[in-house]
Amino acid sequence: GCMGLGGGWNTNSISAGDIKQTEAIIECCLDEGIRIFDHADIYTYGKAEIAFGQVLQQSPNLREQVSIQSKCGIRFEDVHGVKRYDFSPQWITHSVEEILQRLHIEQLDVLLLHRPDPLMQLEEVAQTLIALHRAGKIAHIGVSNMHAAQLAFLQSALPFPIIANQIELSLAKPGFINASIEPTHHYDGMAEYAQQQNIQIQAWGALAQGQFTKEMNNDVSMNVQHTTNMIIQLAQQYDVSREAIVLAFLTRHPVSIQPIIGTTNLARIKACAQVNRCELSAVDWYGLLESTRGNEVP
């Protein structure tokens, strides 16, 4: 995840240090076998894409080594109105053009619609995406934060498949997983629909903001304390980092969840990459689920 690139959520100009940091992160990720880089047009107000694009411009050979996805559809408060979602043809098209320009690329590997727009006009959105695809501006389409019915609705108007849905999902927020156990959650049926339609589930917030991997203090709940202690034990058992155990809870699911990590810390990126050599047993997976739920499964 590239949310932390570009010097932060401020109006400061991008510095040489920001570019150097971005280059170091890309190199570290490639060394660890991480090839997908997740952007959004709003990340650090566009500076994340600019910083990444400058590194690509300096080293053009990097482009063929990475897969780049970005998101559009969220508009912050501006002179025209309050914060809002915008799936209008004009805004989607404008956003894609701006993304490509900032990244210095001709085609985006995946375009994700960032959050559902209640005012979406299905046919207009579909025709816009089809036009961008035919023009070679986007190779694939995905979404973010949608449930199964919204996915099926959009897919009904598209001639090509929606290949990904990026949702908030972690050991701390396992609603997507709980929906398969107790059908009372926002993501009811999503796991099954994703497997049936071959849609990749991408998990943003996958590390749960570090609550299970940083030093505990007295302010955390007993639930978090218990889960953290279990993660420490499992990390020793599987001989991997705590970050790897937190991510392995997601990757163990048969839907093949793709965690999105947002850290800019090189050591933490390497710690996360250890998930590739860790597959939790069913017993350990259910143990973590019970711990984070605070109660046993029904």
Layout of helices and strands:
Blueprint: H1 16-31, E1 36-38, H2 47-58, E2 67-72, E3 74-75, E4 84-85, H3 89-103, E5 108-113, H4 122-134, E6 138-144, H5 148-155, E7 162-168, H6 175-178, H7 190-197, E8 200-204, H8 222-238, H9 242-251, E9 258-259, H10 266-273, H11 282-293
Parallel strand pairs: 1-2, 2-5, 5-6, 6-7, 7-8, 8-9
Antiparallel strand pairs: 3-4
Describe this structure in words.
The chain has two domains: 1-166, TIM Barrel; 169-298, TIM Barrel. By secondary structure, it is an alpha/beta fold. Helix 5 (148-155) links the parallel strand 6 (138-144) and strand 7 (162-168). The strands form two sheets. The protein has a seven-stranded parallel sheet, covered by helices on one side. The chain has a two-stranded antiparallel sheet with strand order 3-4. It is built from eleven helices and nine strands. The model has no long low-confidence stretch (mean pLDDT 93). The chain is globular, with a radius of gyration of 20 Å. Helix 1 packs across helix 2 (47-58), helix 8 (222-238) crosses helix 9 and helix 8 (222-238) packs antiparallel against helix 11. The relative contact order is 0.10. It starts with 15 loop residues before the first helix and ends in a 5-residue tail after the last helix.
